[in-house]
Amino acid sequence: DIQMTQSPSSLSASVGDRVTITCQASQDISNSLNWYQQRPGKAPKLLMHAASTLETGVPSRFSGSGSGTEFTFTISSLQPEDFATYFCQQYDHLPITFGQGTRLEIK
Amino acid sequence: QVQLQESGPGLVKPSQTLSLTCAVSGGSISSGVYYWSWIRQHPGKGLEWIGYIYVSGGTYYNPSLKSRLTMSVDTSKNQFSLKLSSVTAADTAVYYCARTSVISPLHFDYWGQGTLVTVSS
């Protein structure tokens, strides 16, 4: 299985901050990476596919980049509703695997 | 608007079989353009993809669970199901059903709300 390692596992930040999360794959996955947001008690919400393509309706303050084994997810200016947990997910090789998550907390 | 809804017992005894159903509304399972997945999340932990089923009945099971898994689809009821046998406390989790396109990218665009299944005597 491809292992997905996210860092940091948790992050404290303030409204208006720029934050970046990284996701590292244990082998080359091209750009076969998705990002999700999960609020407490809710199902994950798809934010982005193919490493950098935003889903319809997702604000442009979210962005993603990377290919191969290294990926980044950035929120350019944190809003109150962005405090949640974020997961990466690879689909280049089955089984599909997820990162362990990054919990974004209010400082 | 597509909606998915999980249902099934919230409590299962160790060694028994966990059975869940996901009802799909706002779209047809028989459309043939989606895989129908199960994903679980252990309390306070990350996400684990269990596997998916296609309308034809074809499946892919996560090798880590394959020996205990059975998935099925009922097109007449527009629903699909999961059975996980010989459960232990390690199978306690929130179970989600979700949809993904058969065409890459394999992303989960619609999810059920999730159902907590606790394995305990």
- Characterize the biggest β-sheet of chain B: 7 strands, mixed
Percentage beta strand of chain A: over 45%
Q: Tell me how many strands of chain A there are.
A: 11
Shape of chain A: globular
| Large-scale geometry of chain B | globular
Q: How many DSSP helices of chain A?
A: 0
End-to-end span of chain A in angstroms?
Answer: 35 Å
Structural class of chain B: mainly beta
Distance between the termini of chain B: 39 Å
- As residue ranges, the low-confidence spans of chain B are none
Biggest interface, and residues per chain?
A-B, 23 and 22 residues
Fraction of residues in helix of chain A = under 10%
Average pLDDT confidence of chain B is 96
* Beta-strand content bin of chain B: over 45%
Concise overview:
With 107 residues, chain A is mainly beta. Chain A is built from no helices and 11 strands. Chain B contains no helices and 11 strands.
What does this structure look like?
The complex is a heterodimer of chains A (107) and B (121). The model of chain A has no long low-confidence stretch (mean pLDDT 97). Chain A has no helices and 11 strands. With 107 residues, chain A is mostly beta strands. Chain B is an all-beta fold. Chain B has no helices and 11 strands. Chain B has strands spanning 3-7, 11-12, 18-25, 34-41, 47-53, 59-61, 69-74, 79-84, 93-101, 108-111, 115-119. In chain B, strands 2, 4, 5, 6, 9, 10 and 11 form a 7-stranded mixed β-sheet that branches. Chain B starts with a strand and ends with a strand. The mean pLDDT of chain B is 96.
